[in-house]
């Protein structure tokens, strides 16, 4: 768990733990959509025992911006390194097998490896009625200013395997969070998160000096901005 400028990141490798912090136990509806699996209609909404829809709490724009930034960085790593996995946010619920019973959890950010995702059944993909499975990594973001929020997330982390370590770093500490063997080559750019929290912004393309024309090292295409080059490189030389 890493407190960074008012935000607590809880990162856990599912290979090492049996439980993880959550932002409330809520079963999240996916889409207004009806379809069938094996000839049986599937309801994508989750209801309580009385048939009422289970509500989803809202987060502040600052908290959601931090979550979105982590999703973006993890998603970029997933594409740029050719992992072929799946990155989801807190709308993505997972059917866990916790303490002998099924439990729906929705981590703020998760990564599911290609090997796991490609072997999921239609029941697992579109309902919570298939066999329980877990993502490879889950990340929770908490507002350290709100003591009750932090205590709630710390409490559910009490059931973590002893292999999972908690680190507490003072605000202002310069850190790099890398994915180790679980997310090889991934490093979370914490400065981007600090910029979001402090409401600072990096220079936009329009405010920068015009970039000179440069070539793709893999082919004969030429570019004048980094975004077009990156999109070309991902599409033509990574995602083939």
From TrEMBL:
InterPro entries: Nuclease_put_TT1808, Restrct_endonuc-II-like, Uma2, Znf_C2H2_type
One Gene Ontology term of the molecular function aspect: zinc ion binding
SUPFAM superfamilies to which the protein is assigned, alphabetical: Restriction endonuclease-like
GO biological process terms on file: double-strand break repair
UniProt KW RNA-binding keyword: no
Record flagged with keyword Magnesium: no
Chain segments annotated as transmembrane: 6-26
Domain of life: Eukaryota
Domain named C2H2-type: residues: 214-240
Assigned keywords, A-Z: Membrane, Metal-binding, Transmembrane, Transmembrane helix, Zinc, Zinc-finger
Protein's name according to its UniProt entry: 17545_t:CDS:1
Source species of the chain: Dentiscutata erythropus
Organism taxonomic ancestry: Eukaryota, Fungi, Fungi incertae sedis, Mucoromycota, Glomeromycotina
């Amino acid at each position: 768990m890493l407190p960074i400028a008012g935000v607590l990141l809880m990162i856990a490798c599912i290979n090492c733990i049996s439980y993880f912090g959550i932002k409330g136990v809520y079963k999240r509806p996916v889409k207004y959509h009806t379809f069938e699996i094996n000839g049986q209609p599937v309801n994508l909404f989750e209801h309580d025992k009385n048939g009422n829809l289970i509500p989803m709490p809202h987060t502040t724009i600052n908290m959601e911006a931090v979550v979105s930034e982590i999703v973006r960085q993890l998603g970029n790593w997933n594409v740029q390194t050719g992992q072929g996995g799946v990155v989801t946010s807190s709308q993505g619920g997972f059917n866990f097998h916790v303490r002998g019973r099924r439990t729906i959890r929705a981590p703020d950010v998760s990564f599911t490896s290609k090997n796991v995702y490609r072997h999921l059944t239609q029941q697992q993909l579109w309902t919570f009625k298939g066999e329980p499975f877990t993502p490879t990594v889950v990340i929770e973001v908490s507002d350290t200013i709100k003591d009750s929020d932090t205590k709630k997330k710390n409490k559910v982390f009490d059931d973590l395997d002893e292999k999972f370590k908690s680190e507490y770093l003072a605000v202002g500490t310069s850190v790099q969070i890398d994915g180790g063997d679980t997310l090889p080559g991934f490093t979370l750019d914490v400065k981007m998160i600090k910029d979001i929290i402090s409401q600072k912004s990096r220079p936009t393309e329009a405010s920068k000096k015009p970039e000179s024309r440069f070539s793709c090292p893999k082919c004969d295409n030429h570019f004048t901005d980094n975004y077009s080059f990156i999109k070309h490189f991902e599409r033509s030389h990574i995602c083939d």
